[in-house]
Design goal:
single chain; 2 domains
């Protein structure tokens, strides 16, 4: 289904549900303020129940509500599936790649670099901006951050371009959460040794 048609159907469904919500909300407010006469409502319901034409109309409205609900759920589900995958066409047919596979590729790149202690990638596919790669890093040691991050961005971008062959724009954003300095490592080892000694040595009386 073309994107423009999907957007129009989506907008119609949203408007439809807004109207239904306003109608139901107005009825509930009317009941709470005693604006709506309960006996009159019961009388109208009995009239509708006894009329075959009214029952057909109500049944049709109910069927339309169910149809639009299922259609709306299908559109949302299809859009989410498109956002989780990358698709391109080969001469033999279409190929789709999950964003999880791209994130796993970036993790393997980070594991090959000794400067990185931990890497957490998050890849988002959009139609207008292409691939958005957000990377959260914990570095092992102090280094030239601008130079290293620039090299990492280029490595990730070129690797994705080389392996996937996608033509979309690839934007790589890096967030450094922590830098592990050289002083933190000995302190950590001292704490571990102290804990081991406490476990080995018997308590003094």
């Amino acid at each position: 289904m073309p994107e423009e048609v999907t957007m129009k159907i989506n907008n119609l469904i949203v408007i439809f549900y807004i109207i239904i919500s306003l109608f139901v909300g107005a009825i509930l407010i009317g009941f709470s303020l005693h604006v709506i006469d309960v006996s009159a409502v019961v009388f109208q319901i009995n009239e509708l129940y006894s009329s075959s034409n009214a029952r057909i109309t109500l049944g049709s409205i109910g069927a339309l509500l169910i149809f639009f609900s299922l259609l709306f759920a299908q559109i949302i589900s299809a859009r989410r599936e498109r956002e989780k995958t990358i698709a391109f066409n080969n001469p033999s047919g279409q190929v789709t790649i999950t964003l999880f596979a791209v994130e796993d590729l970036i993790r393997k790149i980070g594991q090959e670099l000794p400067q990185i202690k931990e890497i957490r990638p998050d890849v988002i596919a959009t139609k207008k901006k292409g691939l958005l790669v957000n990377i959260r890093l914990i570095l092992r040691s102090e280094l030239n951050i601008p130079e290293f991050t620039s090299q990492l961005q280029e490595i990730v971008r070129s690797k994705i371009q080389e392996i996937l062959g996608v033509e979309e724009q690839i934007t790589v954003k890096i967030h450094i959460a922590k830098i592990q300095t050289q002083q933190e490592k000995p302190n950590k080892k001292k704490k571990e040794l102290a804990l081991e000694q406490e476990l080995v040595e018997p308590p003094r009386v």
